[in-house]
Structures are given as C-alpha cells and as structure tokens.
Specification:
mainly alpha, flat, 91 residues
Length: 91
C-alpha cells in the first residue's frame, strides 16, 4: 500500500516518490515486458527526487531540471556538504 499523500512542497512526499521510483528501478529485469532503459529511468528519477527533497528541506528553491549534476551543484552552493564520491564528475 502506498504511503499517505502529502502536499507537493513537503520533502517527505518527494522522498516517498523517490522510494517508489527506486522500488520500480529494482524490479526483476526478467519479468516479461520490462525494458532495461525504463529501470534506468526510474533509478535516475529516484536520485532526482531525493535531491529535490533535500533542497526543499533546506528551503532552497530548485530549478525544474532533470540534471542530477546541476541539482548537486545547487545543493552544494546552498551549503550542503557533498561527499567526494558524489561530487566527482567523470571526465
């Protein structure tokens, strides 16, 4: 059963949505009709929504983008410490 819905400006709602995407992203690839790129899309959405939840929690207005690197940069500029393993971008 899905969690109770909260207002769209509530960080918990964004985390709940991120958890939903993550649950779908970890679906069994061997199920009929499942495309790998759809699972990857849900994994990206889970990360994006989790970042936006943290930005909301910190009171930071975030851009309406799907770029994880940009969201991490906004988070970092807001004063949030970003672990090196996340902050490093591949060349």
């Amino acid at each position: 059963m899905p969690p109770e819905r909260r207002p769209p400006d509530d960080p918990i709602e964004w985390l709940n949505r991120a958890k939903s995407n993550l649950a779908r992203a970890t679906a069994d690839i061997n199920l009929p009709g499942i495309y790998l790129e759809d699972l990857c899309f849900d994994a990206q959405q889970a990360a994006e929504k989790a970042l936006k939840a943290l930005l909301l929690f910190r009171g930071v207005v975030f851009p309406f983008v799907h770029d994880l690197a940009e969201l991490v940069t906004v988070l970092q500029r807001s004063g949030q410490e970003i672990p090196t393993s996340i902050a490093e971008r591949p060349d």
